[in-house]
Write a structure and sequence with these properties.
Blueprint: E1 9-14, H1 20-37, E2 41-45, H2 53-57, E3 64-68, H3 75-86, E4 93-95, H4 103-116, E5 123-128, H5 134-151, E6 155-159, H6 167-176, E7 182-186, H7 193-199, E8 205-206, H8 214-234
Parallel strand pairs: 1-2, 1-3, 3-4, 5-6, 5-7, 7-8
Protein name: Sirohydrochlorin chelatase
Organism: Pseudonocardia petroleophila
Keywords: Lyase, Metal-binding
């Protein structure tokens, strides 16, 4: 009789925020993914708040796939997540692909912008958190190009915190160039300080964060299945 393989569990790894609303959204994503996949799912954070990856993995025995919920492959994805998971000593945890500028998520940002009131002729800014990491910067540029193709118009890339022109500056520059209306697409997953900064940037339209969009749940499922298949082959 063939050996029965242990089920693969899922660890969702987010950045972390001091804003309780951000954690509520992350936990809601975990609940939806749990229902979608029918596996054990725990959410954790690499910074600011608990549970940490080590905390969450203590509740996930056996083979596990960790999916980093990050829109750019910066320092947290390339260094923090592997280091914190590695420090647990677990050899049965496989880190799956991060979100990055996946076309499905770019489509989600476009949906949010249309829902917020985007009009034909509006100038568009894509607001990313910002980073000094070249990999993260490249992912932001890729997301802006893809959003431009999705919307059929130029998209200006701007940052909320660091690494490039700020969102407010980009909005003001577009108005100075003759734009009568400016719409800002949020390249953020959850509400918090950064989203509130966008709400006050002077744009006519500001899209909402994307974490509760169906595309996020489906992308987590895709990342889980891809990594889970690899994990099963090495079990």
């Amino acid at each position: 009789m063939p050996e029965r393989r242990r089920p693969v569990n899922l660890l969702l790894v987010a950045h972390g925020t001091r804003d309780p609303a951000g954690a509520v959204v992350t936990e809601a994503v975990a609940a939806r993914v749990r229902h979608r996949l029918g596996v054990r799912v725990e959410a954790c954070y690499v910074d600011v708040r608990r549970p940490t990856p080590a905390d969450a993995l203590a509740a996930l025995p056996g083979p596990c796939v960790a999916v980093p919920m990050f829109l750019a492959a910066g320092y947290h994805v390339r260094v923090d997540v592997p280091a914190q998971i590695g420090a647990t000593g677990r050899s049965d945890v496989l880190i799956g692909g991060t979100f990055g500028p996946d076309p499905a998520l770019v489509g989600a940002a476009a949906d949010r912008l249309r829902t917020a009131g985007l009009r034909d002729g509006d100038a568009v800014v894509l607001a990313v958190a910002g980073s000094s990491d070249p990999c993260a910067q490249a992912d932001g540029e890729r997301a802006a190009r893809r959003l431009g193709r999705s919307l059929g118009r130029p998209v200006t890339l701007a940052t909320i915190a660091t690494g490039g022109p700020r969102v407010g500056e980009a909005v003001a520059a577009l108005r100075a160039d003759g734009a009568s209306r400016v719409a800002v697409a949020s390249w953020l997953l959850a509400p918090g300080l950064f989203q509130r900064t966008l709400d006050d940037c002077g744009a006519d339209v500001v899209g909402a964060p994307i974490a509760d969009h169906d595309a996020v749940v489906e992308l987590v499922a895709a990342r889980f299945h891809a990594a889970g298949a690899a994990l099963s082959r090495t079990a």
